[in-house]
Amino acid sequence: MAMRLEEDRFLLGVCYYPEQWNETMWDDDFRRMREMNFSVVRMAEFAWSIFEPEEGSFRFGLFDRAMDAAHRHGLKVILGTPTATPPAWLTAKYPEVLNVTFEGVVLQHGLRRHYNYSSPKYRELCSRITREMALHYKDHPAVIGWQIDNEFNCEISEFYSEADHLAFRSWLQEKYGSLDRLNEAWGAVFWNQTYSGWEQVHLTRPTPSPRQPNPHQLLDEKRFISDNAISFAKVQADILRELAPKQFVTTNGLFGHLDSHRMTDELLDFFSYDSYPQFSTITEREQEESPLLDRSWSLNLSAVRSISPNFCVMEQQSGPGGWVNRMDMPSPKPGQMRLWTYQSIAHGADMLLYFRWRTAVFGNEIYWHGINDYHNRPNRRVREAAQVGEELSRVGKRFLGSRFQAEIAIVRDYENEWDGEYDVWHGPFGWESGTAWFKALTRRHLPSDVLYLRETTRLDDLRRYRMLVYPHPAIMRRETAELLEQYVAEGGVVIFGCRTGYKDERGHCYMEPFPGKAAKLCGISVEEFTMVKGTRAPTFLTWNGDPGSRIPALRFNDVLAVESDTAEVMAVYASDYYAGKPAVTRNRFGAGEAWYYGAVFHEQAAARIIELLGLRSPANGWMKLPESVELAIRGSAEANGNDSDGRPGAPATAFLLNYEEKPAKLTFLRPTEELLSGQVLQGEVELEGFGVLLLRSPEDGE
Ligand code: GLA
Ligand code: GLA
Questions:
Q1: Which of 166, 245, 413, 633 is 20 to 30 A (C-alpha) from 100?
Q2: In the annotation, is 158 catalytic?
Q3: Ligand 2 in reach of 17 Cβ (< 6 A)
Q4: Which CATH superfamily includes the segment(s) 408-613?
Q5: Does 151 sit in the ligand 2 pocket, CB within 6 Å?
Q6: CA 452, 453, 456 angle in degrees (round to 5)?
Q7: How confident is residue 649, by pLDDT bands cut at 50, 70 and 90?
């Protein structure tokens, strides 16, 4: 669905919690927001007990006053439905609404997101609070839209309450129709797991050996969790659509076991994301060789863009992030907050709110810093946000509705992600290879998208791209293989890695030579394969047999055999007993080509393929950029220069983002207007540390 905003300006704003502050502060807060050129606030997403202090009795006074004050200052409001935090009275009276862990521990009041999606009682009470709020605020002049709940599947993305077991059973009955079909899909004859009555069927449960359930059951469990979250959200979306049709409906966050694409297509006007680039400094990415750190967030933003080409950042990091006992992030240095803001916008954000206005003085998030400190006096983060506000008030409108331009997509799908969480024979490879490709592309200034292959994906969705990198799709449906064959036949390029194509959608292995469903497209078979770990010494491959081009053949080796005249060996293994056998192949298929890389990708391997394919950056012939600077271009939504509604497309803008603290040296080969300063850049130009340039792109006819 297209972004439905009546506003003709870039909406910049902040998350605000009137219930956490003395009412006497509100007016001053809103006044200062307006001074910073903020125009929107989100509120109420955790305030159920304020609205319904006891069951069935509703009070709107506090938020009426807060929203009226916001409105008086000219601010728009996005309202959250408060269902991520059920009141204490609710969970005490109806304990069946609580979530339960895999081990059977009931999760109690005291944090948030401790409810389950299945309890009919919880759905009923959520419907009622949503209905009451919608009725009360549907005509409020400040309200522009709604956020359903907060961050579905954050905190915990597994559900094992009694209600969940029952709901899973109905979901399976619907899916399989009979126990025979269920037994077959789950391979239940293996280890005597055959079910003879539906009451015996459950979500996965503790078994001997820690957490080793039936893999086919577990894959269905994840599909169920996703469907169940969407059906939970739908209850609220339907009410909001019915009662508040003029206001948009969205939800925020990107978390596990949830098909956010389907949820967005079916329920939302657009998707919203919470962008905290500092998370990249507390993950294992810190240990990677040449990590991208906060720049790696651009890959997450690309995944968000695959859901909604234009999206809202509902929470943008505005200071050091930390909870009391975990998550301890450094303070953004001067300029970094602004850089991250433009990173979000460069990747497709059409509205952005900082999290949060002022740091909380109590609760789990006293170290999750807002723009304002506890003391509430001017600080550098407030000044930096005000600078962004001033800039966007001048140029922000220009981006609205324009689309990130990419000719290359890194392909993913939910089935392989979910199956791969459990299956260590392919799961960990997907993330590693996707990241390696992203690094190789972004450092060469080749903008890329993420594309999720789904049952609804059509040839037209693929035709946008010159090349697709689909690293390790172990599960491959016949229909997916056929779609990719059509894309390649027309001239597209597809790149696969090891472990491609050998499982069906149930997670059973095809009784066919690997790469199973991708064999025809690749023109090869896999003669044999092995993990490369433990006592197995690292292995290598060489390109075109050139010993000087030796690179590691990481983690897993598919030893290939050419099966078609159109297939060509691009690299051979250079070590172990299969030295000399094909490691990388390229198959001409119709007008295009399909590559098979027998191992897990790393940056060097991706770089070599980029070189062999002769991919060129849009910066080519326009400017010379160092590796440390990211290039992103937003332009018209459609190839013909129009937006999807047929109107002339938005003007093209190129974003240059310097993630390093030290200045970057750029060379402009053509005079280029910088939009924030109005200056024309030519020849050598220095981009300050953490600096941003917004360029009028040469395609822009203005
Ligand atoms: C044991 C069991 C087999 C099989 C193998 C491999 O030997 O007896 O049934 O499970 O381990 O795991
Ligand atoms: C998420 C939530 C916010 C807040 C931040 C910081 O994005 O939506 O409520 O908790 O994380 O932890």
A1: 413
A2: no
A3: no
A4: Class I glutamine amidotransferase (GATase) domain (3.40.50.880)
A5: yes
A6: 115
A7: low
For the domain made up of 623-696, give the CATH fold. Immunoglobulin-like (2.60.40)
Which among 633, 629, 634 has a CA at the least distance from the CA of 692? 629
Residue extents of the structural domains in the chain: 11-400, 408-613, 623-696
Expressed in angstroms and rounded, the spacing between residue 416 Cα and the centre of ligand 1 is: 26
Summarize pLDDT for 580-604 with one digit per residue, the tens. 999 999 999 999 999 999 999 999 9
Q: Is the CB of 274 under 6 A from ligand 2?
A: yes
pLDDT the model gives residue 535 = 85
Which ligand does the CA of 368 lie closest to?
2
Is the whole model's pTM more than 0.85, yes or no?
A: yes
Mean pLDDT (whole number) for 233-239: 98
Residues 33-62 pLDDT 10s: 999 999 999 999 999 999 999 999 999 999
**45 Cβ closer than 6 Å to some ligand 2 atom:** no
CA 255 – ligand 2 centroid, Å: 12
Nearest CA to 497 out of 580, 579, 392, 600 is that of 600
Ligand 2 pocket test, candidate residues 151, 317, 329, 369, most atoms within 8 A of CB: 151
- Residue 645 pLDDT grade (very low, low, confident, very high; cuts 50, 70, 90): low
**Which residue puts its alpha carbon closest to atom 10 of ligand 2?**
365
Measured between alpha carbons, how far is 576 from 587 in angstroms, rounded to an integer?
25
Domain 11-400, CATH homologous superfamily name and number: Glycosidases (3.20.20.80)
- Site of tokens 């609710």: 90
Exactly one of 315, 384, 415, 630 is catalytic; name it. 315
Q: How far is the CA of 46 from the centre of ligand 1 (A)?
A: 50
* Residue 149 Cβ contacting ligand 2 at under 6 Å: no
125 within 8 A of 90, measured Cβ to Cβ: yes
Nearest CA owner, ligand 2 atom 11: 274
Tokens of 639: 């190839």
DSSP one-letter code for 230: H
pLDDT reported for residue 210: 83
For residues 636-664, one letter each, b for 16 or more C-beta atoms within 10 angstroms of the residue's C-beta and e for the rest, the string is bbeeeeebeeeeebbbbbbbbbbbeeeeb
C-alpha triplet 569, 572, 577: angle, nearest 5°: 135
**Which of 274, 325, 352 to probe ligand 2 with, by most ligand atoms within 8 A of CB?**
274
Has 315 been annotated as catalytic?
Answer: yes
Is the CB of residue 85 below 6 angstroms from any atom belonging to ligand 2?
no
Which residue's alpha carbon is at the smallest distance from atom 7 of ligand 2? Answer: 274
Provide φ and ψ at 689, rounded to 5°.
-55, 135
CA distance 631 to 92: 53
Percent of the chain with pLDDT over 70: 96
Q: Of the bound ligands, which one is closest to the alpha carbon of residue 209?
A: 1
Nearest CA to ligand 2 atom 6: 368
Burial class (CB in 10 A: 0-12, 13-18, 19+), 81: buried
Residues 408-415 have a mean pLDDT of 98
3-state DSSP percent of the chain in helix, strand and coil, to 5 = 35, 25, 45
Whether the predicted pLDDT of 641 surpasses 60: no
pLDDT at residue 182 tops 50: yes
Whether the pLDDT of residue 650 is over 90: the answer is no
Q: What is the mean pLDDT of residues 11-34?
A: 98
Retrieve residue 3's tokens: 């972004």
How far does the centroid of ligand 2 lie from the alpha carbon of residue 511, in Å?
46
Q: Say yes or no: CB of residue 658 within 6 Å of ligand 2.
A: no
